[in-house]
Amino acid sequence: MQKILQVLLQPCYQSGIKAEELAEAVRLDYKLALQLLDKMVSKGVLLKIGNLYRLGKNSIARFAECFFFEHRQSDLCRSLVRKAVDYYVRSGCCVVKVENKNMPRPDLICIPFIDLYPDFQNAFEVEIEATTAEKNPDHLIENLRKTTEFEERHIWCTEKDLPRVLECARKWANKRTVIFAVGEGGEPNKIKVDGKIPVESGSESLASEAEKAEELREGNAEDLAECSISIDKRPITGRRTVKRVERRFFKMEKGQKKLDEVFQEFEKATQSPKEGKSGAQELGKTFLSSGAES
Questions:
Q1: Cα 242 vs. chain centroid, distance in angstroms?
Q2: How far does CA 230 lie from the centroid of its chain?
Q3: What is the arithmetic mean of pLDDT over 87-93?
Q4: Strand, helix or coil at 90?
Q5: pTM greater than 0.70 (yes/no)
Q6: Per-residue pLDDT tens over the stretch 34-49
Q7: CA 267 – CA 89 distance, rounded (Å)
Q8: Bridge partners of 250?
Q9: How far apart are CA 76 and CA 131, in angstroms?
Q10: Measured between alpha carbons, how far is 1 from 95 in angstroms, rounded to an integer?
Q11: What is the DSSP annotation of 218-242?
Q12: 64 alpha carbon, distance to own chain's centre
């Protein structure tokens, strides 16, 4: 669905697009593309005028509300999620919501695209910090010290919370961090922090975390060295990286396998051009059957 939104964001499609044209643009079977488009219309994400599909005034905001909001979220949290999803969709990324249970996981994961192919090597994690900066700073520090497979972390907060979030990030962030401070209207204010675990504190736990983080960096560097870009500019996925992500990070209990399934379909889509279309179709079928968005 996100690739459909990104196609419709192009200026040439402001007045709308026919289903068969969009199916060709995103390399989906026509019938499956039509099902996805009709589902997006039923959810209020797209408008249908005649045989043309087009974006509405608040299409991406509506998309975030349908697929990323949770009942327990505060209004402020939902506002930050809406802003984050809008930013990443317009930036050409695939946004995945994560169920944070039983093991450290971020709130969202973003995977950039190269054409229609997911660029796993540059995937990054996203944390939404709506209330933790002032009310629960320990939770904010815990999020900044999470050890995951990703080399970059984005944090979304309000401008009011920016000083506290920035202070904690400079002290505790264990990886490259970008803070997005959201104010009233306009683009979010972006601040980059080069994260380093403060092992000089003498804490054994911090030193242990530093060693783990270094092992992850070395492993990722080895995988990146094995990867290359083929003549047709498709990224060749580092299989060791993908398998490690599946094994260490996305291994879920029964009933929590959506991300595994989505990433498996993404991996299929990075194979040969013929298989790529099949993988994209399977991913579309996953959207329709589960009602979830990747």
A1: 15
A2: 25
A3: 93
A4: helix
A5: no
A6: 999 999 999 999 999 9
A7: 20
A8: none
A9: 8
A10: 10
A11: HHHHHHHHH--B-TT--B---HHHH
A12: 12
Predicted confidence band of residue 289 (pLDDT cuts 50, 70, 90): low
Any residues with CB less than 8 A from the CB of 292 and at least 6 apart, and which?
Answer: 67, 97, 258, 262, 286
As given in the structure block, the two tokens for residue 117 are 């192919």
Question: Are the C-beta atoms of 164 and 137 separated by less than 8 Å?
Answer: yes
Parallel/antiparallel/unpaired status of strands 17-18 and 117-118: unpaired
Classify 105 as helix, strand or coil: coil
Q: What is the pLDDT of residue 72?
A: 79
What six digits make up the tokens of 180?
């997005």
For CA atoms 110, 112, 117, 122, the dihedral sign is negative
DSSP letter at 250 equals: S
Which phi and psi angles does 117 have, rounded to 5°? -110, 130
- Alpha-carbon distance 293 to 257, whole Å? 13
Chain segment 177-214, per-residue pLDDT in tens: 999 999 887 789 999 998 764 433 333 444 444 454 44
- For residue 13 the two structure tokens come to 């499609």
Pairing type for strands 152-158 and 124-128 reads: parallel
Contact in structure between 279 and 116 (CB atoms under 8 Å): no
- Determine the Cα–Cα distance for residues 81 and 65; give it in Å rounded to an integer: 9
Two tokens, residue 194: 């080069």
